[in-house]
Design brief:
2 domains, binds pyridoxal-5'-phosphate, four-stranded mixed β-sheet, alpha+beta, Aspartate Aminotransferase, domain 2
Length: 215
């Protein structure tokens, strides 16, 4: 048996599992001998200010999956295993045509080195907090804004009604955003986002949200 969790749900609308929940889940898995798998494809690779989302709770999964930010756009995914899960696959048990290819692995290694050298974890934490603060100020009291939430550069603005049409409107205004779970504007800025970028993002996205909610 294994339990799989996404510490901050991306497609699910930027919902974050509480620290207590994560610790309790780890304990439950230990008690029952279940494996705990963390899907870190979206919330991993420094997006929340630490390498992996689960590190904020101080828990250690048996297996964690990575992709997206791992190669900075070069396609690569990884499955990490430790503890009881470490020996489940041996060399040659699980292969794929392009698995472990040097180009993708070099992109991943360079990404890891750059995140470390350029302090991008701290940047994600700091700039993400700034974006949420600025959004909170700019959208305070606006009817139809349910919640602004997230961690680091994984940010959701929940609105009171489905807002998928905002994706096209934002694109026309030069902004790449997404809407998940029908009602949540999702922002996943790059880890190199600066404080000026954050201010520009808020200045450009808030009027679109206000206009949408006023219609
Ligand atoms: C949390 C999460 N897990 C897994 C995937 C799938 O990853 P891949 O496209 O690399 O198979 C996605 C893709 O959006 C995702 O957001």
């Amino acid at each position: 048996v294994a339990v799989m969790i996404e510490i901050i749900q991306g497609e699910g609308g930027i919902h974050r599992a509480s620290i207590e929940f994560q610790k309790g889940l780890r304990q439950l898995c230990d008690e029952h001998g279940w494996l705990l798998i963390c899907d870190e494809v979206q919330c991993g690779m420094a997006r929340t200010g630490k390498w992996f989302g689960y590190q904020h709770a101080g828990i250690q999964p048996d297996v964690a999956t990575l992709a997206k930010g791992l190669g900075s756009g070069v396609p690569i995914g990884a499955c990490m295993a430790g503890g009881r899960a470490a020996g489940l696959f041996g060399p040659g048990n699980h292969g794929s045509t392009f698995g472990g290819n040097p180009l993708a692995c070099t992109a991943a290694l360079t990404t890891i080195a750059t995140i470390e050298q350029d302090g991008l974890m701290a940047n994600a934490e700091r700039v993400g907090a700034l974006i949420r603060t600025l959004l909170g100020e700019a959208l305070a009291g606006v009817k139809g804004v349910v919640e602004i939430r997230g961690h680091g550069l994984m940010i959701g603005i929940e609105l009171a009604r489905p807002c998928g049409e905002l994706v096209g409107k934002a694109l026309a205004a030069g902004l790449l955003i997404n809407v998940t779970s029908d009602t949540v504007v999702r922002l996943l800025p790059p880890l190199i986002f600066s404080e000026n970028d954050a201010r520009e993002l808020v200045d450009r996205s808030v009027p679109l949200i206000k206009e949408f909610l006023a219609a």
